[in-house]
Amino acid sequence: MMKAAILALAVLAVPVAAQADNIVIPLPGGVKPETIKAAYDCGTFGPVTASYINAPPVSLATLAFKDQFLVLSNVLSGSGARYAGGPYIWWSKGRGADLYDLTQGENAPPIASCTQKPA
Predict the structure, then answer these.
(1) Phi and psi (nearest 5°) for 104?
(2) Largest CB tally within 10 Å, which of 23, 40, 55, 115?
(3) 82 dihedral zone (left: phi>0; alpha: psi -120 to 50; beta)
């Protein structure tokens, strides 16, 4: 009984709430998120849809491809925008983007090279 009460309190204390198919992240006062949606043609890999969610200082991306849905966080990049989540790296620059699977090795080529479709 005590463990259940502690677990219930811990769940209530988490600032990120998930409801059905949504994730709600409280933002500091005055921060207005901006979402940019993009569709990519990735050749034989198939299509990738991306949503870029910017709420400074945090930037996230969601990717949907094949039967996968990923949430990635912006990480340090020499150029372009680089996002990491699980074993994947999504690196976009201009209208191009590459998807890397780190389980294939750090120096492996991208599993998909993509071009953003016109809006």
Answers:
(1) -90, 5
(2) 40
(3) beta
- Eight-class DSSP state of 104: G
Pairing status of strand 48-55 against strand 58-65? antiparallel
DSSP codes joined into one string, 20-59: TTEEE----TT---EEEEEEEE-GGG--EEEEEEEETTEE
Return per-residue pLDDT of the chain as tens, 119 residues: 333 333 332 333 334 444 567 888 888 888 889 999 999 999 999 999 999 999 988 899 999 999 999 999 999 888 889 999 999 999 999 999 999 999 999 899 999 999 999 98
Element (H, E) at 89: strand 88-93
- C-alpha 86: how far from its chain's center? 10
Instruction: Report pTM.
Output: 0.78
Residue type, 72: L
